[in-house]
Amino acid sequence: MPEVLFKIDLTKSMSEQEIVGHNRWHPDIPAVVSVNPGDIFRIECKDWTDGQIKNDDNPDDIRDVKLTVVHVLSGPIHVKGAEPGDILVVDILDIGPLQGDEWGFTGIFARENGGGFLTDHYPNAAKAIWDIQGIYTQSRHIPGVRFAGLSHPGLIGCAPSHELLAKWNKREAELVQKGGPPWKPAIPPLAALPTPENAVLGSLKGSEFERVAAEAARTVPPREHGGNCDIKNLSKGSRIYFPVYVDGANLSMGDIHFSQGDGEVSFCGAIEMAGYLDLHVDIIKGGVEKYGMINPIFKPGPVEPRYSEYLVFEGISVDEFSGEQYYLDAHVAYRRACLNAIEYLKKFGYTGEQAYLLLSCAPVEGRISGIVDIPNACCTLALPTEIFDKNILPT
Length: 395
Prior knowledge:
Helices cover about 15% and strands about 30% of the residues. By secondary structure, the protein is an alpha+beta fold. Helix 5 packs across helix 6. The protein is globular, with a radius of gyration of 21 Å.
């Protein structure tokens, strides 16, 4: 086993760990460990909520999650020799749950606590607990389903520079001030802006903590540095190329998923777990300019569930409530594809909440299938039929 450079005690919060991680992005959060290019090492991670969710049948913990706590990250890791303008190469060698803690959860967030993709249809908190058995999982809360996971870090990225951080904060504040598109409901909010509430900033103390807490970016969205991209194919064997913005790159990670469907539609929608990552790092000097990099690039690994039979649901960019036509809107079209799949699964004995949770965490394939055929975008959601213990095809 590789040397463990960031060790987690699941009985303690992130701020109480022997090595304290962080839950904000800022260039001045000190690195907790240094590695050399070519090194192989293990990083352990708490689940994204810092242990707020319990392995029980009561969804009140999902309802009451403190969102200013998330995401708790392990790191930053200083890679010797990495400089702004370089590319940090990260190989995911292995990934899995922490020993003795082989379970995960999927949730629907309550409307009054952030909501999710389909919050106007499913406004109340719900939870499914998944038992992890090797590569497979099943849930007492969604019976008749068993599938292999495609485990991955939902969140991984390098620290931003001061300039990039200022750009993030400026544009996200302007978005909130301007307001969203006409179809956008008030919930979920448009952006999660900086707040010192429940900030965890590694070893920072006193006035430095207060300064950084007021400026640091929340971890909710993906950005130029990577971050919370929630890409299910970023799994074992993947190689990721990150742009470097600060000396040492300051790589951090967390939000480990046992499995997830494309879109992670219920927001707390993967099978969230505490886990470990075995990593190898290297550097491409001057790689950002050489390859015209703006956002990270990755090469998927060769390991994934081998499902070959799917039932595919279409959706178009027409509002399901008003019937209003939207112009080539992939967001509305994918929402309709999800809703169509949920209505279908309800005919096979699942509640809407069970179907919503399943589409979020099972290895479904989401696609923008058409984005040029005016006025309707067409999105599709492909549901693997082999994960069910009964035939769900139309007959």
